[in-house]
Specification:
The complex is a heterodimer.
Chain A lengths: L2 H9 L12 H28 L3 H7 L1 E5 L9 H12 L4 E4 L2 E3 L2 E3 L3 H14 L5 E4 L18 H7 L2 H17 L4 E2 L24 H15 L10 E5 L14 E2 L4 H8 L1 H8 L4 E4 L2 E2 L14 H11 L5 E3 L6 H7 L1 H11 L4 E2 L4 H13 L5 H17 L13 H4 L3 H14 L1 E5 L12 E6 L9 H10 L4 E5 L5 H12 L3 E8 L11 H12 L4 E7 L12 E4 L5 H11 L36
Parallel strand pairs in A: 1-2, 1-12, 2-5, 5-6, 7-9, 8-10, 9-11, 14-15, 14-16, 16-17, 17-18
Antiparallel strand pairs in A: 3-4, 13-18
Chain B lengths: L12 E5 L3 H13 L3 E5 L2 H8 L6 E5 L7 H11 L5 E5 L2 H4 L3 H4 L3 E4 L4 H14 L10 H12 L1
Parallel strand pairs in B: 1-2, 1-3, 3-4, 4-5
Helix pairs in contact in B: 2-3
Classes of the chains: A alpha/beta, B alpha/beta.
């Protein structure tokens, strides 16, 4: 264990003190002091920090700027911008986002990320709070970390203990690479099949089930004091019943207050009861709570009256990204930041231009539009959060300890277990699963784009079991004649299995391309046995209601490709239950249960 | 504030050679974070030129580079510094059958998941290697030392 890690362990040893003390009286005294010290310490540190801050410093602490985690040359304009915003402006934190490398998202390697974070931390007067949304573990934003399936897969697997475990691993890996704030769990109840942006990111449509998983994740993430992270319930007051992507425009929830109480707000109440550290706002309007043209992010009725006063939430309120279309188009950078703080937010996440946001907020305080008291409340919350994760005691990551933490084999095994248990069979007539004659079956994979790696693992797994099986990976960029050839080749097989990758991504609809739809319709109409596997959006069945066999994995990660092949070959029981309703086609909780019939092939 | 553990060889000079600027910057950032001094070159020719003017404790080079590949660079450097610790990186270690024996590197690493962790451990291990033994002293030198001690 490195020196830095040993030092960290020493700082977290308070709770074990009374155990070693023989005298019950002394033990009681020590126990009291162990409880009391964390109460006094943070306040003292926060007060000390605040005393040294100018108005501009305070405002800047409320702003979090994006960074990709990838190293950049110190000679670039981007690097100089970091130096300016951190060293001169004193922004409060960073949010890890992915940048595009060609057509793919470039995720930083853990050591590279940690090194860059350390460099930025050294640049900063106060320690920086570093956040990332880490929705399927750290792997969402960092390569080489444990890959978990999407939230809906956890709900289909039906075991909150697995979600708790995801929380533990995500917290550990986050801290190992220098991230202290996880913008997860997703507390949205996905009760709208047309929701283009939440979908499999949600734990489903049942508020109680969503609540249990949300609580489990929060518990898991807080289980180990040595890897303390901040958790975030999002997107308040609930983004599940929308049909608009807020990256593009303002979405509206037309539910009345009673429905909101019973459905949308339930998981947030559950999160607050588990002391969730933060709540992230949604850029959606809720006419039952405020005017129809006011997004919740900028609504005092939603953030202050409902969240702070009615739900008694005392933690951090963080906006969703302020560069999203729903906010930027209607309000502009400067005004949106001021309105968000006025409404009750504490942290402005990713304003399009941090300087503009800081200047606007400073001006708003000077003009009295935002009171000094209101500003100080938010600053104190941000600083207290920094103390909570131990940033007053140390801000640097030990690079040589990273490999001991990330991508642990047991974590990968448990993540595979989630993907396996999630697989849900909604139709199987005639009994096409397990696949009877793999060598005479055609496997077609419909990738989301020409540039993705989707289907690679599925292909390898099929060939391990049936080396001569025909596996074709198609992508939407292929011209119609090429798709016609694939359709024709599939016609020569006794049966066809089609895996369609439909991930949730901003600015994308949750359907297959027109060319793929034609291919699927042709295969279904041919009358030959066909199995459709939905990798991602489970509602895909609505587009192909006549398909005879339908399997869904709720995730596009490689683990789900492995799980689907195991299910197809009868190597594991199929035991998932649908955590949403597919209108007119499948009920909530559906799932044909099949026993395993054959062992998995030996691992080479 | 928590500080990082001191590097095993603070200030050791590492020469990084790669025609991919991002790879160079990424590895430099990590190595510098651990306390090493790092110089970067985007070609073998540039590396040879710098090697003649700067003291270098360890070389990390990519394999596939235009004009002069990593193995040729290693061969030319071995002619002047046979004992220099060298790490060769490549995305094609298995397809090309790159090994320590076939390339002259002390360590051959694949550019794949976990590469950076392996790289850091290899750097530490190679710099940890026992320094060469002192040369056997000549008879006259032993006599001179005895005389000094006696005096």
């Amino acid at each position: 264990m490195s020196r830095a890690a040993r030092r960290e362990n020493r700082t977290s040893g308070l709770v074990s003190l009374p155990v070693r003390v023989a005298s019950p009286i002394l033990a009681a005294l020590l126990l009291c002091s162990a409880v009391a010290v964390p109460e006094r310490g943070p306040q003292k540190t926060v007060s000390r920090w605040m005393k040294s801050m100018s108005l501009r410093d305070k405002v800047a602490q409320l702003v979090m700027i994006p960074f990709s985690g990838r190293s950049i040359s110190t000679k670039t304009r981007d690097y100089r911008k970091f130096v300016h915003l951190i060293r001169d402006v004193h922004v409060g934190g960073l949010i890890l986002v992915n940048v595009a490398q060609g057509r793919l998202a470039a995720r930083p390697e853990p050591h590279e990320l940690a090194s860059f974070v350390n460099r930025l931390q050294r640049m900063s007067k106060l320690p920086l709070l570093v956040g990332g949304d880490f929705e399927r573990g750290a792997s969402m934003r960092v390569s080489g970390t444990t890959v978990f399936p999407h939230a809906m897969a956890f709900a289909a697997a039906g075991d909150p203990a697995l979600t708790r475990y995801e929380g533990e691993v995500t917290a550990r890996e986050a801290r190992a690479v220098g991230v202290h704030w996880i913008f997860y769990p997703d507390a949205d109840v996905n009760n709208n099949p047309d929701n283009p942006i939440i979908n499999i990111r949600s734990f489903g449509e049942n508020p109680q089930v969503v609540s249990r998983h949300v609580q489990a994740f929060i518990e898991g993430a807080g289980a180990d004091r040595r890897s303390r992270v901040l958790t975030t319930a999002k997107h308040f007051p609930g983004h599940g019943d929308t049909a608009t992507d807020t990256h593009l425009g303002l979405a509206v929830i037309n539910a009345d207050r009673q429905r909101l109480n019973d459905v949308e707000l339930a998981p947030f109440r559950a999160a607050i009861s588990k002391d969730v550290d933060a709540v992230m706002t949604a850029h959606i309007s809720v006419p039952a709570l405020d005017s129809a043209d006011v997004p919740s992010t900028l609504s005092a009725a939603v953030l202050t009256k409902l969240l702070r006063e009615e739900l008694a939430f005392h933690g951090l309120i963080v906006t969703d990204a302020m560069d999203m279309g729903a906010i930027v188009k209607a309000f502009g950078d400067a005004e949106a930041s001021v309105r968000a703080i006025e409404a009750g937010a504490d942290v402005i996440l990713m304003p399009p231009d941090a300087d503009t946001a800081v200047n606007a907020l400073v001006a708003a305080v000077r003009r009295g539009r935002i009171s000094q008291k209101r500003l100080d409340q938010s600053v104190a919350r941000v600083l207290a959060a920094k103390v909570k994760v131990g940033l007053d005691r140390g801000r640097l990551v030990d690079l040589e300890a990273i490999d001991d933490v990330v991508n642990a084999p047991e974590a990968n095994d448990r993540a595979q277990e989630v993907a396996d248990r999630a697989v849900t069979l909604l139709r199987n007539e005639p009994a096409q699963i397990p696949v009877r004659a793999p060598a005479k079956t055609c496997f077609l994979l419909l990738a989301e784009s020409h540039y993705s790696n989707e289907g690679l693992v599925f292909t390898q797994e099929i060939h391990k079991r049936s080396p001569d099986a025909l596996v074709l990976t198609l992508d939407p960029s292929l011209p119609d004649p090429a798709l016609d050839v694939a359709t024709e080749r599939a016609g020569f097989c006794d049966a066809t299995v089609v895996g369609a990758f439909v991930p949730v991504a901003a600015r994308a609809n949750l359907a297959v391309s027109a060319g793929f739809a034609k291919l699927l319709d042709t295969l279904i109409a041919s009358g030959k046995p066909m199995t459709l596997i939905a990798f991602g959006n489970p509602y895909l069945l609505r587009s192909f209601p006549k398909v005879a066999a339908y399997l869904t994995t709720y995730s596009t990660v490689p683990l789900s490709e492995v799980a689907a092949v195991k299910a197809l070959f009868g190597e594991m029981p199929i035991r998932g239950h649908l955590p949403v309703t597919i209108p007119d086609l499948a009920k909530y909780g559906d799932g044909i249960q099949l026993a395993a019939i054959t062992p998995a092939p030996p691992v080479k | 504030m928590k500080t990082l553990p001191a590097p095993v060889h603070p200030g050791a000079m590492i020469l990084l050679v790669d025609d991919n600027p991002h790879g160079l910057i990424a590895r430099r950032t990590v190595l510098e974070e651990l306390g090493y001094r790092v110089r970067i070159c985007e070609s073998g020719a540039e590396a040879l030129e710098l090697f003649g003017t700067q003291p270098v404790d360890l070389l990390i080079t990519d394999f596939r580079m235009p004009n002069m590949d990593g193995v040729e660079l290693i061969t030319r450097i071995r002619q002047v510094r046979a004992d220099l610790p060298i790490i060769l990186l490549s995305g094609f270690v298995e397809p090309l059958g790159l090994t320590e024996q076939s390339t002259g590197a002390d360590v051959v690493l694949s550019k794949s998941a976990g590469e950076v962790g392996f790289l850091l451990r290899s750097v530490r291990r190679l710099l940890n290697r026992q320094p060469p033994r002192k040369p056997v002293e000549s008879e006259s030198a032993v006599q001179a030392k005895k005389a000094r001690n006696a005096g």
